[in-house]
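chain below, 340 aa
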Amino acid sequence: MLTSIGESVTRSEDRRLLSGRGRFTDDIIIPGMVHAIFLRSPHASALIKHINISEARKIQGILGVFTGHDLNNELGSIPCFGTHKRLDGSPMYVPSRPILASDKVVFIGEPVAVVIGNNISVAKKAIEKITVDFEIIDSVTDVKDAASSAAPTIWKDCQDNKSFTYSLGDKAKVEKEFGKAAFTTTIEYSISRVYAAPMETRAAIGNYDTSNYRYELYSGTQGPHNLRKVLAQNILNVPESNVRVISPDMGGAFGMRSGAYPEMAVVLWVSKQLGLPVKWNGERSEGFLGDEQARDNYSKVSLALDENHKFTALKVKTLAALGGYLSTGGASPPTVNLGG
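prediction:
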């Protein structure tokens, strides 16, 4: 008698994708669609003194140039969900992450302005006309350096640069096992930061329907239902029924496409302002700078063994880099993913 348990499952999508019939975000064309290009920070840490967009607005074919001062008052910030505590028992520190940086930038690639053009070429031409007066301030990248007392403070209301601490397991029992262990060994190592580098770069199309006041987002995402909730409740401040998220075919994700990104909110907001669908298709260089990255941990691991070389206890102490901001699920990878 045949059973499905243990049998190979034939992939249903291969023929369509291998024959070029996939439908990715950039394949979607909506009549009247215009194009967005983002200006990104070239500095890891800097104050924004002034943004001059006057020359960019003069270019023929440009429909709008927007900065954080135009939209941040209307949109909420990108949230991070987590209920961890700091060492003193206070709530975890979550810096407010604006859709577009308006006062300061905290990583290279942070978006500070967006240009909307009739086509990509004219939008790129206009982006070159924007000038930003940055006041560069000290930055820190290495996680061990960031945790030292001499490190530059990223956020004034978080002087030690530490968002939260997290512990799991029975510490007393572990120490007892180490105390009677026949053998112990310790290793210290770092895991470098990694970038997912999906075949398809991130992209987003925003389309606001004025007849029913409904936002529609096309974007490859690993969590369309949660993204819809975050966009509605935390960013757009509208009922969830007024937001629709469509995730078409997606060329790679690896966890990187699981949260909300500024570009998604921007194309939706601009679509409402202009009454036109707005597309952004990120380039590979933007992906290296603006996509969520992973790992970047420093760990000290100790193992206890009995006289028969059987593992009896394990201690892991990890320092995890979370970046200038915390992503939507930023509290999870260095905790749940690491500790099980």
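The CA atoms of residues 301 and 316 lie 5 Å apart. The chain is about 20% helix and 25% strand.
thats it, cya
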